Amino acid sequence: MDKDSTVLLEIQDIHKEYDKKEVLKGVSLDLHKGEVLVVLGPSGCGKSTLLRCLNGLEKIQSGDIKFKNESLTQKNMDWKDIRLKIGMVFQNYELFPHMSVIENILLGPLKVQKREKAEALAQAEELLTRVGLLDRKDSYPRQLSGGQKQRIAIVRALCMNPEIILFDEVTASLDPEVVREVLDVILGLAKQGMTMVIVTHEMGFAHSVADRIVFMDEGTICETSKPDEFFKNPKTERAQHFLNILQY
Ligand code: ADP
Ligand code: MG
After folding, report:
1. Exposure pattern of 115-146 as b/e (b: 16+ CB <10 Å)?
2. Ligand 2 mean position to 136 CA, how many Å?
3. CA distance 172 to 175
4. Ligand 1 within 6 A of 107 CB?
5. Which of 2, 70, 76, 158 is deepest in the core (most CB within 10 A)?
6. For ligand 1, what atom is nearest to the CA of residue 43?
7. What's the mean pLDDT in 176-197?
């Protein structure tokens, strides 16, 4: 591995069921500092569930998740604290409609992290500049395009200074012409060394951004490969089939 060898997240044989239906059937995975992991797989295979388990939005039935060697499955786990370190961006932005862009972004830094307003504001404005949206800081979500809302949602996650960011199909509900502007922001983060787990259906993007591709099907990881290897020569029949259907 040419990235930092520090392991930030260790996922060990996790099992997750909903109403007795097992949707994660023993998933194990390591995430290294600075690594970009892209999770691919057919709809319903458990990708979102996996990400949601990583920041405590879902409870696992067995197995363990460790963040910097600390188990996240212990009793009395403070998930609020972990979510500051493991941020997540969703398909549907989840911005508060009654709050302006800057209020949405500063909510976590001021209310949860209790930071100084001037300092947090300076960071928020710098991040907004980076994604080309500083002039929209007083707009409300309804006044923004989907691509703009999603870039704001990414800024909101970044403004908490997380150590890892999880992206769950963040371009899936965007119009095709604005998908690129969001993907470019994520590519920029990858270049800066942000540690990320990305679920996406954008194969070209997956190929270019990933350090490793994790292919899932029916609640298990079928293969983990370098992107060139995965896209040119997938090891499993299921991955071949998946790529054939997408004609990538
Ligand atoms: P993916 O993100 O890969 O499309 P999901 O993780 O969303 O897959 O879903 C995996 C499986 O778990 C699917 O069969 C889905 O129907 C089921 N599932 C997801 N969330 C819930 C839930 N809250 N309650 C019951 N079943 C769920
Ligand atoms: Mg999903």
Report:
1. beeeebbebbeebbebbebeebbebbbeebeb
2. 29
3. 9
4. no
5. 158
6. 4
7. 95
